[in-house]
Amino acid sequence: MTTRGYVATAVGLALGISIVLTGCASSRDAELPTAFTTPAPPPSFNEYTIQAGDVLGVQFYYHPDHNINDVLVRNDGMILLPLVGEVRAAGTTPAKLAAELTKKYAANLKDPVISVSIKSVYQNLVWVGGEVFKPGFVQYRPGLTAVQALMDAGGPKDTAATSECVLLQKVGGSEYRSSKLDLAKVLIEGDTKSDLALGPKDVLFVPKTGIAKADVWVDQHIIKLIPIRFGYGF
């Protein structure tokens, strides 16, 4: 091979090696992240949402004399706090509620730092509905009886059929066992044997008396169908 041929061959090999190395470097650079690549954020987990029936704790770090250990979230979703009054709690998270309380208490306290914690959720309550003055959740406590829960809900109305109360007791999962309670024997006759101990998440319903039901039926099905009401002028 001539000298010119050796030179051409060497140049060709050099160019080939250069192209291969360049390709490898480009591929390697494409695979390596740049120095300013931002790592992906960790997956976020939804914070618990406060609901009616929950019991909250409110802590003031720099004003511990204002700490509140047990604040019940009412059925309307509100809580009542000293200095600031009613605040909506249901539907928000503890962190967001703490931020809202910090803003509200700033008008009364210097540099308030507040945290909100969940002391107990609504499962630790009993629901009392029907013909009572304050239908809704009542706080469960060991030994709570049906009559005590009835009184915690404001007591029965005059239209209450306390001899025909319905008790739904939690028996596991989402299943309930229903039974009839004659609480009139307890309230009127003092027969405590007719009272029953309740458990968390039980439901006590007090229906209307027969006369009250009749009045509602007459109002819904007769009175409201008359075009001219009694007492109205022609």
Description:
The protein has 234 residues and is of the alpha+beta class. Among the domains are: 66 residues, wza like fold, CATH 3.30.1950; 86 residues, Outer membrane lipoprotein wza domain like (Outer membrane lipoprotein wza fold like, Roll). The strands form three sheets. A five-stranded mixed β-sheet has the order 7-6-10-8-9, with helices on one face. Strand 6 and strand 7 form a beta hairpin. The radius of gyration is 36 Å and the shape is elongated. The termini are far apart.
Keywords:
alpha+beta; single chain; wza like fold; disordered C terminus; about 230 residues; 5-stranded mixed β-sheet; 3-stranded antiparallel β-sheet; Outer membrane lipoprotein wza fold like; about 25% helix
Indicate the multimeric state: single chain
Structural class by helix and strand composition: alpha+beta
Q: Catalogue the unreliable spans.
A: 3-11, 13-45, 225-234
Radius of gyration: 36 Å
Please report the distance between the alpha carbons of the first and last residues.
131 Å
- In CATH terms, what is the architecture of the domain at 124-209? Roll
| Total strand segments | 10
- Give helix and strand order, one letter per element, not per position: HEEEEHEEEHEEHEH
Summarize the main sheet.
Answer: 5 strands, mixed
CATH superfamily placement of the domain at 124-209: Outer membrane lipoprotein wza domain like
Helix content: 25-40%
**CATH hierarchy class name of the domain at 124-209:** Alpha Beta
Reported by name, the CATH topology of the domain at 124-209 is: Outer membrane lipoprotein wza fold like
Kindly estimate the percentage of residues that lie in beta strands according to DSSP.
Answer: 15-25%
Q: Count of helical segments?
A: 5
Mean pLDDT: 77
Can you list the strand order of the major beta sheet? Answer: 7-6-10-8-9
